[in-house]
Amino acid sequence: MLRRAAQKILKAFGLYGLYSLKVKGPLLEDGWFRSFEEQRPVDLRGHPLPYITYPAMEFLSRRVRPEMTVFEYGCGASTLWWSARVKQVDSAEHSREWYERISSQAPSNVKIHYAPISGTAAGDSNAKEAYARLALEPGHKVSIIVIDGRLRVRCVRHAVEALAPDGVIVWDNSDRVYYEPGYRFLAEHGFKRLEFVGIPPGVNEKTETSVFYRAGNCLGI
After folding, report:
1. Plot region of 179 (φ>0 → left; ψ -120 to 50 → alpha; else → beta)
2. What are the angstrom distances between the C-alpha of 114 and each of 39, 47, 64, 73?
3. Is the dihedral of CA 47, 53, 56, 59 positive or negative?
4. pLDDT per residue as tens digits for the range 169-200
5. Which domains does the chain have, with CATH numbers?
6. What gap in Å lies between CA 92 and CA 131, rounded to an integer?
């Protein structure tokens, strides 16, 4: 009786739907509410998650294999998420704060390459190029390159060179039209695009994460 009374009150104030989302279902199970409350991307148990859409995360988690290698532009919680799933993770990071923060948490299969750039969109040209070329630093072809940092269009031109023949590119915030030159560059080099639209951890708006791939790719697309 008390439960029915509580439901009636919540419905009267238009809060029953929110209550239902908080007590069961994917937002609870995926850790969205915990991420929102703690202001960091985590799952229900507090383990780190990448700031990409949940559909993309679900897709990747089912297809990534332990022998793969990852290079990512922009380190963060994603670095820790990848490190638990693949053999080696290399990250390019322009921010000293994030470089030090993630370096202090990273396991032995992670190497973070610190490459400061001057300013944001208008920085020193040499510093920008050094950052963008870091995908070539590991000295081996990479299975997955994640583009989620600065200078994304510049970075993708070097990412293709660093990618293994069966490698794929994961591009976050791929709904942003000002990255269009990068998408065209990939299309010109034979890449197709698979888009995952949804919400990321703790964020109350839709965005898009895309996987760019060629035939015979490591994810079996």
Report:
1. alpha
2. 25, 24, 26, 11
3. positive
4. 999 999 999 999 999 999 999 999 999 999 99
5. 46-213 (3.40.50.150)
6. 7
